[in-house]
């Protein structure tokens, strides 16, 4: 026996429901099958869209992020290189002076020494952003060492 029923659903969408009874008393509803297939199709469609977006759209964002990180790293390396060049020039400038050689050869060195007073006042540390000055002799023995806190001074 086949019965045809008419009903409305979701503001104007007309759904026809067909119920069919077989010998074993099993009732198959077209409406349930339709919603099941529709649900499966929606899940498959959303999954497909997600996979495609992830592969093409999000992949390009990852590439852009990686390029940005490389660019920032190159900027940092350039800045460090410039700072090292500045420090190298400063060290070479002091190491080439006769005054520095005479200072290293002296045995009685204090913070009141004329070389220290003229070459390493607080303004030298501040202007060059030095936190430590260390002078050693040819044997590697520390002749003069002085630290400076840039944040407090």
TrEMBL record:
Per the record, a Pfam family?
CHASE4
This protein's UniProt keywords: Membrane, Transmembrane, Transmembrane helix
Tell me the InterPro entries matching this sequence: CHASE4
- Which branch of life, at top level? Bacteria
Q: Where is the CHASE4 domain?
A: 81-144
Q: Which residues cross the membrane?
A: 34-57
Q: Output this protein's name.
A: CHASE4 domain-containing protein
Q: Say which species the protein is native to.
A: Paenibacillus sedimenti
Upper classification of the organism: Bacteria, Bacillati, Bacillota, Bacilli, Bacillales
